Amino acid sequence: MTNLSLSETSRPWRRPFRAAVAAVAVVCTVVACSPVSNSGGDTQSGDSQSAGQDSFGTPADPAAVKQGGKLVIALSAEPDALDPTLSRSLYSRYVFQAMCQKLYDVNEQAQVVPQLATALPTTSGDGRTVTIPLRQGARFADGTPFDSAAVKATLQRHLTNSRSARKSELGPIDGVDTPDAQTVVLRLKQPFAPLLGALADRAGMIMSAKALQSLGDDFASAPVCVGPFKFAKRVPQNSIDVVKDPNYYEADKVHLDAISWRILSDASIRAANLRSGDAQVADSISTQDVASLRQESSVSVLQSQSLGYQGLTINIGNVDGVGTAPKPINRPLAQNAKVRQAFEHAIDRKALVDAVFNGIHTAACSPISPASPFSSPEAQTCPAHDPAKAKQLLSEAGVQTPYTVTMLASNTPDTLRLAQALQSMLKDGGFDLKINPVEYSSLLDEQDRGNFELLQLGWSGRIDPDANITNFVGTGASQNVSGYSNPQLDTLLTQARQSGDIEERKKLYGQVVTLLQQDDALIYLYRQRNLTAVSKQLQGLQVFPDGVIRAAFAGFTK
Asked: pLDDT tens digits, the chain, 558 residues: what are they?
């Protein structure tokens, strides 16, 4: 989850999702679902500075960039564990992009493309056997060969580690076979539509079997993968450094000597470091700084609509920690859905994003974008802002007003502005919101332990809706920090995972959203635009709709 932040007026952000329709067609090759056509509309590349226009960045021109140099990226929050099995933050994905390649990746059109695999998977007629061809000649940073045995070791760890955040993403894998060094065969208990999307994210990041054997649960202390760069050092709360890996199979395409991520949680300080030249990239720039940075002749602003969401998670059963059986919590907010519904009715999403984010972000009531091929009117239904209704529901629940709720939130300026706006807004609905700001990595720890009543976090998003939903609201799922459990919802999510028909999945996800809004364990607020500021001294840095900063093949202009 991320502490990024989102608005509902401009529509240029639809274009990446039109391209995502093509990605759905690709996913369908794995699960035998009906193909869909691309509805057209090209994405914009380059460094356009016009407000609202997608700008992903362009690849570096090898003839125009220097060889060598260290790239410094000012990062808005500290990544969590640099372990693909355990990681759950967007910021770790930035680092992984440079040093831990995946079986598959996502391009700027949100299409799945091979990376460590050599082609898209082939699937048996019953959808239960998936065969993946692997790249030959690749080596891990420790010099050991990348092969099917390493893929098997990685996937088995994802599926069996007690703290794994990948298990529910990989679904019903029943076994992993390695008929030869360059082929992996996944055996499934039943068809699983989201599989390819999962393998294009952390579940598809392959780790060195030698490192896994020697480091075990301490893999994050010295992670070893296949990538353009390899891990060098980490100073907690300060920085993470990687250096060029000579073992990388396309090392001649890597221009930089090193990349350093510097943790600077204040957006104004990140912008100042960019202006001074102490950093060449600043992630998650504040919507307060966008206009002024666009006026800088030495800076480009990359932007695109996120695939994810920002929201509020209510603890309704996480007593013993994420992944454990839900237990009753003796608070009206946890016990009574009417209190949670009242909380949602007290929120004016449009006013919120306009006031806090200058209308740059987009109000949202669902984990499914309205431009997604899986969207429907049911999936986009939005509970009305109605403070009177909120007070009525609180009265029906027997709750005295003002009802006090304490919210855990990251201590970044943008998040605190959001929290304070919510605090003011909720008063009219009968709530007294208390804000407890903490550092981002501490927030992740507290949410996992269940040490919260309400928290504000979000998700950077994936191309398949299952990856934006099931992990967070499915019973016992690896990121269900709410402790939410609804057997009817679980049945719908399972049916959607197994269905090979897009229209059927669309219908099921509409029913899923209806249930989610009845129970309100997770209240969706808005979708953020990915906003990244880049020095024009740098070429080749790109940020796609998945929100990941792609720096591995960047270089400094000659």
From this structure: 433 433 222 322 333 333 343 444 444 434 333 222 222 233 333 344 445 678 999 999 999 999 999 999 999 989 999 999 999 888 999 999 999 999 999 988 888 999 999 999 999 999 999 999 999 999 999 999 999 999 999 999 999 999 999 998 998 999 999 999 999 999 999 999 999 999 999 999 999 999 999 999 999 999 999 999 999 999 999 999 999 999 999 999 999 999 999 999 888 999 999 999 999 999 989 998 999 999 999 999 999 888 889 999 999 999 999 989 999 999 999 999 999 999 999 999 999 999 999 999 999 999 998 878 899 999 999 999 999 999 999 999 999 999 999 999 999 888 999 999 999 999 999 999 999 999 988 999 999 999 999 999 999 888 899 999 999 999 999 899 999 999 999 999 999 999 989 999 999 999 999 999 999 999 999 999 999 999 999 999 999 888 899 999 999 999
User: For helices 267-276 and 413-427, what crossing angle results, to 10°?
Assistant: 150
Give dist(CA 54, CA 529) in Å, integer.
Answer: 9
What order do you get walking across the sheet with 431-438 strand by strand?
Answer: 362-363, 522-527, 309-314, 454-459, 403-410, 431-438
Instruction: Judge if pTM exceeds 0.85.
Output: no
Ordered domains of the chain (ranges, CATH): 63-99+227-298+536-557 (3.40.190.10), 100-217 (3.90.76.10), 309-529 (3.10.105.10)
What does 384-404 look like in DSSP terms, one character per residue?
---HHHHHHHHHHTT--SSEE
CB atoms within 10 A of CB 192: 22
